[in-house]
Design the sequence.
């Protein structure tokens, strides 16, 4: 009888120990899971870049592109031995393409006029009476600032000047440029790009503002004009 009682007591103790062990496992598991979850959340928060950081990267990239363009333009200050240069302003890239083809065909140097404040799509909305370009073109005295006007024209005898047509005239930034330079003794050939408008009196208006130089009539060139077409146009200017 005594052995039976001892056996029952031992069995009861074993069951109690097992229950205690299981209870300890169940209480520690959630704590481990919570720790892992908190760690993952913290890592995700640290790795995700803030909107401010992304904006700064975008701004830095844009500034880098603009600085590169300005550095390329600075090369025109050096004496290349060339007597012809293409100077142009392009807000959307259309005039840029034509200017590059003129430079390639004629073997000329090239210089891009870069505005201190780039033109956004909203600025170029001609349907908006309050857009930047509308306000500028309605004001003959507007003179948008140029970011990189460091070109020296002294050694050039022939200067092609290109621009888009805005409201039937050259953009006011072209007025800023021609008023800042001396064209005495130089042949100046204006050219423009447009959706359909002719060069009109834009070249004559720039010549009047420049006050010097032999300004030819120039003309409008299609955005897709070929190099052979450009050569024919150049020949017609002589």
Sequence:
């Amino acid at each position: 009888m005594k052995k039976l009682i001892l056996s029952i007591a031992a069995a009861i103790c074993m069951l109690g120990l097992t229950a205690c062990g299981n209870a300890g496992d169940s209480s520690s598991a959630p704590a481990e899971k919570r720790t892992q979850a908190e760690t993952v959340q913290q890592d995700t928060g640290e790795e995700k870049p803030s909107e401010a950081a992304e904006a700064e990267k975008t701004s830095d990239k844009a500034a880098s592109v603009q600085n590169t363009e300005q550095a390329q333009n600075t090369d025109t200050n050096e004496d290349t031995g060339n007597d012809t240069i293409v100077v142009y302003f392009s807000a959307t890239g259309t005039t840029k393409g034509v200017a590059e083809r003129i430079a390639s065909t004629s073997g000329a140097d090239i210089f891009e006029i870069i505005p201190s404040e780039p033109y956004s799509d909203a600025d170029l909305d001609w349907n908006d009476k309050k857009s930047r370009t509308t306000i500028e073109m309605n004001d003959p005295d507007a003179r948008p600032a140029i970011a990189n006007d460091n070109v020296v024209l002294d050694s050039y005898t022939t200067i092609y000047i290109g621009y888009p047509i805005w409201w039937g005239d050259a953009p006011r930034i072209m007025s800023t440029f021609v008023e800042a330079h001396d064209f005495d003794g130089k042949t100046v050939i204006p050219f423009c790009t447009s959706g359909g408008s002719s060069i009109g009196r834009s070249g004559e208006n720039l010549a009047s503002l420049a006050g010097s130089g032999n300004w030819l009539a120039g003309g409008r060139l299609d955005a897709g004009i070929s190099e052979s077409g450009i050569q024919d146009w150049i020949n017609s200017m002589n």
Observations:
- Residues 1-76 have pLDDT under 50 and may be disordered.
- The beta strands are 84-88, 109-112, 158-164, 187-193, 214-215, 219-220.
